[in-house]
Amino acid sequence: MQERGLTKYNDAKIHFLNHKHKTLRYEDVEKLVSKPRLNRYLVACVYSKTRAEELYAANLKISQAFYPVLNLFEIILRNKIQDRLSIHFKNTDWITTEKTGFMNDHTLGKNIGTRKESGFYLKKQVEKAEKKLGKKSGATTTGKVIAEQTLGFWTTLFEPRHYKLIGGSLIHCFPHRPTGVNRNPISGKLQNIRGFRNRVYHNEPICFNGSNIDFSTAENVKNDIYELLAWIDVDAKLYVEDFDVIDGKITEGKRI
């Protein structure tokens, strides 16, 4: 005979699971996430509220699937850059000591035509991290400063002026790149990944091309990630693939 307390527990658990899997109406979701946010989905689905709700959910699930892939890519890239520049500067603490080195070079303060570049962005980001860490714990170790940096910090190193100031050393982060591949295509892929990553992390749509439902951007970014990982180390690519369920979620989204 089942104990009374356990029966109550199981009944409560079943109730919780049923409630958890309850499908909300479009109007309920609209109240939770706002009408303007859902409107783009509604227009793309020709004002079918059922499809719009499903598409919004699919967008979230695809974004969720990208999290481990994007996180691991960022960690692997960051560590590779740290190793490479530690060799280049003969100093594992380059990220803090180079505030008065290449990060402070006078050429970074000059405008080049109409092209927008990041100026002293790297220096400011390191100083910002040090200030934050100083307030938090008083400790500003190299490892902690590195961990504070965003993907934008690492991709900025591949912009022309920064790249030149460190002698193009970062090309060696990609030892398995095809012959003839230089900074430009690598930087282009990194910028695409960075922009996409920001959309995912800020819950922005990643399933549109204009007003049309289109998952090609997500598919292209995934391809860029794996291509760069393969150029870094094939084992890195294989490792990240173990946590990848992106294609399945995109397939589900395409059925809507």
Layout of helices and strands, plus pairs?
Layout lengths: L3 H17 L5 H8 L1 H10 L4 H41 L4 H4 L23 H16 L5 H7 L2 H6 L3 H6 L17 H19 L6 E2 L2 E2 L2 H17 L1 H8 L4 H9 L2
Antiparallel strand pairs: 1-2
Helix pairs in contact: 3-4, 4-10, 4-11, 4-13, 6-7, 10-11, 11-12
Structural commentary:
The chain is mostly helical. It has one domain. Helices cover 66% and strands 2% of the residues. It has a two-stranded antiparallel sheet with strand order 1-2. The longest helix has 41 residues.
Features:
256 residues, mainly alpha, 13 helices, 2% strand, disordered N terminus
- In the predicted model, the low-confidence regions spanning at least 5 consecutive residues are 1-9, 12-19
List how many beta strands DSSP finds.
2
SSE-based structural type: mainly alpha
The portion of residues forming beta strands comes to under 5%
Q: Rg to the nearest angstrom?
A: 23 Å
Measure the end-to-end span.
Answer: 47 Å
Sheet with the most strands, sense and barrel status: 2 strands, antiparallel
